[in-house]
Amino acid sequence: MNETVPFFSGAASARRDRPALEARIRQVAASGRFTSGPVTAELEQAIARRTGARHAVAVANGTDALVILLRAAGVGPGDEVIVPAYTFFATASSVLHVGAEPVLVDVLPGSYAMDPRRAEEAITERTKAIMPVHLFSQMADMEVLKDLADRHGLLLLEDSAEGIDMRAGGVHAGLWGSGGVLSFFPTKTLGSLGDAGMLLTDDDRIAARARRLRQHGQDTDGDYLHHEIGYNSRCDELQSAFLLHRLERLSEEIERRAELAALYDRLLAPLAPAVATPWLAPAKTPGNQVYYVYLIECDCRDELVAYLDAHGVGTETYYPRPLTEQPLLAPLPGSRHPVPVAEAAARRAVALPLYPDLTDRQAERVARLVHAFHGVAS
Ligand SMILES: Cc1ncc(COP(=O)(O)O)c(C=O)c1O
């Protein structure tokens, strides 16, 4: 009987790490401090050290981090923010949350990141910021995008929710401009037990305002003096404890992800050009390849997904439609730019299982099935 291969599982690591995890959980339970306490402060310091950020501000999830970042950076009603059309909904919904308008532009094939030329064409007198996204296994071309933002006097913000440990030119994702975010959703490269997120910035004022916004506009938690309308976006001590534990293995896990990606690359190479494996960054940007997701493209994507599912292999269709086709966004003026690359990716792309617990045997089985689907024996 062939074993199933779930799209994501952390069960084996959880079993292996159980004693260490239980000890951390007992510690938090005994402390009596369950949110925004010393463990979260320790996590913020650890992430700041790892990323090189001057400030790391823990919040409840990556979406909140985006909303708070935009508000803390001064984006609001009347402003336009240029974002890529191929990304998770939160990239654009966060812009709407702060009362600004997302302007959706096409992406580049390969990196799936904001196309700088399309972004430049979309600039108007109302453009306040550009917010590129780093998706799957690759950073956007930050040198070019930073130059674009600087030339037009725009804020550069990054949806780096997927970008832990991704660097370009030695600069961590999220720190090329005024700030970025991290999501610790369980499937992320650094995933928590539920939801958690973080804002990264080198800007003291943005950090101070973010700290205020995450706790209902108070400068001091618990003084009940609310300076502005903020959010309840606390990070739980339990999540922070779990994340500190996961951080200890992060480098090792990123290496394992890379090994699995190399294995898929090798096994799927004979299927080119019918199956496109992830594009590799040019040599000028070493270090920006962290495989959060292993995304392939093929013509019969939906049929492949159904075939793999019938054989017990989980996949995820990131993202099944460009944001310009989201019912809430389609009617907006910001959805009028043509996005053919995003449309093609939405039709063709699918993510294969890739996580530290995945065994070589499981990856080989997935690759064999992709071969079988394409009618080629491996
Ligand atoms: C590109 C991108 N932006 C934003 C988010 C939102 O993060 P969260 O799910 O932690 O709210 C995610 C993750 O889900 C993401 O992948």
Keywords, please?
Aspartate Aminotransferase, domain 2, binds pyridoxal-5'-phosphate, 38% helix, Aspartate Aminotransferase, domain 1, single chain, alpha/beta
How would you describe the overall organization of this protein?
This protein has about 375 residues and is an alpha/beta fold. It folds into two domains: about 10-250, Aspartate Aminotransferase, domain 2; about 250-375, Aspartate Aminotransferase, domain 1 (Alpha-Beta Complex). The chain is about 40% helix and about 15% strand. It has 13 helices and twelve strands. It has helices at about 10-15, 20-30, 40-50, 60-70, 90-95, 115-120, 140-150, 205-215, 235-250, 250-270, 300-310, 340-350, 360-375, and strands spanning about 55-60, 80-85, 100-105, 125-130, 155-160, 165-170, 170, 180-185, 195-200, 275, 295-300, 350. The strands form three sheets. It has a seven-stranded mixed β-sheet with strand order 1-9-8-5-4-2-3, with helices on both faces. A hairpin with a 2-residue loop joins strand 6 (about 165-170) and strand 7 (about 170). The longest helix has 19 residues, at about 250-270. The chain is globular. The two termini are about 20 Å apart. Pyridoxal-5'-phosphate (PLP) binds next to helix 4 and helix 5.
Largest sheet entry: 7 strands, mixed
Q: Low-confidence segments, ≥5 residues, pLDDT <50?
A: none
Write down the Rg: 21 Å
Distance between the termini: 20 Å
E-strand count: 12
Architecture per CATH nomenclature, i.e. the level-2 architecture of the largest domain:
3-Layer(aba) Sandwich
